[in-house]
Amino acid sequence: MKLRTSKYDSAVVLDTPEAIQEYLADAFESEDAALISYALGVVARAVGMTRLSEQTGLTRQALYKALSSDGNPEFGTVIKVAHALGFRLSPERLPARIEQAQDRENVLA
User: Fold this and answer.
1) How far is residue 37's CA from residue 18's CA, in Å, rounded to a whole number?
2) pTM metric for this prediction
3) 8 A C-beta contact, residue 61 and residue 72
4) Nearest Cα to Cα of residue 42 among 4, 91, 7
5) Residue by residue, what is the 3-state secondary structure of the chain?
6) Percent of the chain beyond pLDDT 90?
7) Which of 25, 57, 71, 78 could be disulfide-bonded to 66 (CB atoms 3.0-4.6 Å)?
Protein backbone atom coordinates (compact mmCIF):
# COMPACT_ATOMS: atom_id res chain seq x y z
CA MET A 1 0.00 0.00 0.00
CA LYS A 2 1.40 3.39 -1.06
CA LEU A 3 1.37 6.29 1.33
CA ARG A 4 -0.29 9.30 -0.26
CA THR A 5 0.69 12.75 0.88
CA SER A 6 -0.42 16.19 -0.12
CA LYS A 7 1.28 19.55 0.05
CA TYR A 8 0.54 21.41 3.30
CA ASP A 9 -1.06 24.82 2.84
CA SER A 10 -0.98 27.18 5.82
CA ALA A 11 -3.85 29.18 4.33
CA VAL A 12 -6.24 26.35 5.24
CA VAL A 13 -5.73 26.79 8.99
CA LEU A 14 -5.83 30.59 8.98
CA ASP A 15 -9.54 30.69 9.61
CA THR A 16 -9.80 33.19 12.47
CA PRO A 17 -8.58 36.77 12.90
CA GLU A 18 -6.47 35.61 15.85
CA ALA A 19 -4.75 32.90 13.81
CA ILE A 20 -4.01 35.38 11.04
CA GLN A 21 -2.62 37.93 13.49
CA GLU A 22 -0.34 35.38 15.14
CA TYR A 23 0.86 34.06 11.78
CA LEU A 24 1.74 37.56 10.58
CA ALA A 25 3.33 38.50 13.92
CA ASP A 26 5.66 35.50 13.65
CA ALA A 27 6.60 36.46 10.09
CA PHE A 28 7.27 40.09 11.00
CA GLU A 29 9.30 39.05 14.03
CA SER A 30 11.69 37.25 11.68
CA GLU A 31 12.53 40.58 10.00
CA ASP A 32 13.00 38.59 6.78
CA ALA A 33 11.43 40.56 3.92
CA ALA A 34 10.90 37.46 1.76
CA LEU A 35 9.20 35.59 4.62
CA ILE A 36 6.97 38.57 5.41
CA SER A 37 5.97 38.87 1.77
CA TYR A 38 5.26 35.14 1.57
CA ALA A 39 3.22 35.24 4.81
CA LEU A 40 1.13 38.12 3.47
CA GLY A 41 0.51 36.02 0.37
CA VAL A 42 -0.61 33.03 2.46
CA VAL A 43 -3.00 35.22 4.43
CA ALA A 44 -4.24 36.81 1.20
CA ARG A 45 -5.13 33.36 -0.12
CA ALA A 46 -6.79 32.50 3.18
CA VAL A 47 -9.11 35.52 3.08
CA GLY A 48 -9.61 35.44 -0.68
CA MET A 49 -7.44 36.98 -3.35
CA THR A 50 -10.43 38.41 -5.23
CA ARG A 51 -11.70 40.24 -2.14
CA LEU A 52 -8.21 41.54 -1.42
CA SER A 53 -7.82 42.65 -5.02
CA GLU A 54 -11.02 44.67 -4.79
CA GLN A 55 -9.99 46.28 -1.49
CA THR A 56 -6.46 47.18 -2.58
CA GLY A 57 -7.17 48.20 -6.15
CA LEU A 58 -4.47 45.80 -7.34
CA THR A 59 -5.11 42.98 -9.78
CA ARG A 60 -5.18 39.41 -8.53
CA GLN A 61 -2.25 38.64 -10.83
CA ALA A 62 -0.21 41.52 -9.37
CA LEU A 63 -1.00 40.35 -5.84
CA TYR A 64 -0.06 36.74 -6.59
CA LYS A 65 3.22 37.88 -8.14
CA ALA A 66 4.13 40.40 -5.42
CA LEU A 67 3.21 38.11 -2.54
CA SER A 68 4.82 34.94 -3.85
CA SER A 69 7.96 33.45 -2.36
CA ASP A 70 9.89 35.05 -5.25
CA GLY A 71 8.03 38.35 -5.02
CA ASN A 72 9.51 41.63 -3.95
CA PRO A 73 6.52 43.90 -3.32
CA GLU A 74 6.82 47.65 -3.13
CA PHE A 75 6.33 49.06 0.34
CA GLY A 76 3.12 50.71 -0.81
CA THR A 77 1.78 47.31 -1.80
CA VAL A 78 2.63 45.88 1.62
CA ILE A 79 0.78 48.76 3.30
CA LYS A 80 -2.28 48.35 1.05
CA VAL A 81 -2.41 44.61 1.71
CA ALA A 82 -1.93 45.06 5.46
CA HIS A 83 -4.74 47.64 5.60
CA ALA A 84 -7.06 45.45 3.53
CA LEU A 85 -6.37 42.61 5.98
CA GLY A 86 -7.21 44.89 8.91
CA PHE A 87 -3.67 45.61 10.10
CA ARG A 88 -1.44 48.65 10.24
CA LEU A 89 2.31 48.73 10.30
CA SER A 90 3.62 50.61 13.30
CA PRO A 91 7.12 51.12 14.65
CA GLU A 92 8.23 49.24 17.70
CA ARG A 93 11.43 50.26 19.42
CA LEU A 94 13.96 47.47 19.76
CA PRO A 95 15.07 46.85 23.37
CA ALA A 96 18.75 47.41 22.54
CA ARG A 97 17.92 50.80 21.02
CA ILE A 98 16.04 51.84 24.18
CA GLU A 99 19.05 51.02 26.33
CA GLN A 100 21.38 52.94 24.01
CA ALA A 101 19.07 55.97 24.07
CA GLN A 102 18.91 55.88 27.87
CA ASP A 103 22.71 55.63 28.08
CA ARG A 104 23.04 58.72 25.87
CA GLU A 105 20.52 60.61 28.01
CA ASN A 106 22.44 59.70 31.17
CA VAL A 107 25.71 60.94 29.64
CA LEU A 108 24.11 64.24 28.60
CA ALA A 109 22.49 64.80 32.02
Assistant:
1) 19
2) 0.77
3) no
4) 7
5) CCCCCCCCCHHHHCCCHHHHHHHHHHHHHHCCHHHHHHHHHHHHHHHCHHHHHHHHCCCHHHHHHHCCCCCCCCHHHHHHHHHHCCCCCCCCCCHHHHHHHHHHHHHHC
6) 61
7) 71
